[in-house]
Design a protein that fits this description.
The protein is built from eight helices and three strands. The protein is mainly alpha-helical and 162 residues long. The protein has two domains: 56 residues; 99 residues, Cytochrome c-like domain (Cytochrome Bc1 Complex, Chain D, domain 2), CATH 1.10.760. It has a three-stranded mixed sheet with strand order 1-2-3. A hairpin with a 3-residue loop joins strand 1 and strand 2. Helix 1 runs antiparallel to helix 2 and helix 3 crosses helix 8. The longest helix has 21 residues. It starts with 11 loop residues before the first helix and ends with a strand. The chain binds heme C.
Length: 162
């Protein structure tokens, strides 16, 4: 699960307060104020440099390797219904078509959408533009396959979370 918070390390707060308290037991007020200031700068610095939640957002959510959100589950169902596995393998490992585990490490989402909808001329990769189910579930299909390619979805057969 990705952290969708603001990046501020709230779990650091109690530790931080205890250390100020300990500091006052042993040292002067000025020294402790200086330490407090330094820790605050560090905490906020980390918050500021934390990756933003929108950049690098994953299109899928997975727990325990194969329990996924409804969109990703729909992607798996589309994969099965369109029988992509006939050519790309039941575990996306590749058969007559290339391994999509490998392909999606480099293929952009745009290239994926283009390939699936238009096909690749003079290859067995046909256009799916006439397949309403695939076209309607393109994002879902991508989410599922991206999760597999990232290694986040560890089993090709997925089920609903919770
Ligand atoms: C009849 C066999 C066949 C079926 C069915 C098929 N593919 Fe393919 N697919 C191929 C072949 C062969 C290629 C390689 C084309 C080439 O040489 O550029 C390919 C290429 C691709 C690529 C590009 C890979 C890359 O590295 O450039 C993607 C993505 C892809 N297929 C997704 C799918 C999806 C999703 C489905 C199901 C909706 C599907 N394919 C169904 C045979 C198939």
């Amino acid at each position: 699960m990705t952290n969708r918070g603001d990046g501020f390390r709230w779990e650091a707060v109690p530790v931080f307060l205890v250390s100020i308290y300990r500091c006052h037991m042993k040292h002067s007020k000025t020294l402790c104020s200086a330490l407090l200031f330094a820790s605050a700068v560090t905490a906020f610095g980390q918050a500021a440099s934390a990756p933003s939640s929108s950049a690098g957002e994953k299109p899928y959510t997975v727990v325990d390797g194969n329990k996924v959100d409804p969109n990703t589950l729909q992607g798996f169902k589309t994969w099965r219904a369109a029988a992509c596995d006939r050519c790309h393998g039941a575990n996306q490992e590749g058969l007559v078509g290339p391994s999509l585990i490998n392909s999606l490490k480099t293929l952009s989402k745009d290239e994926f959408v283009q390939t699936v909808s238009k096909g690749r001329p003079n290859t067995q990769m046909v256009a799916f533009s006439g397949n309403a189910e695939v076209m309607k579930n393109m994002d879902q299909l991508y989410a599922y396959l991206k999760g597999r390619s990232d290694g986040a979805i560890t089993k090709s057969r997925v089920e609903a979370m919770q």
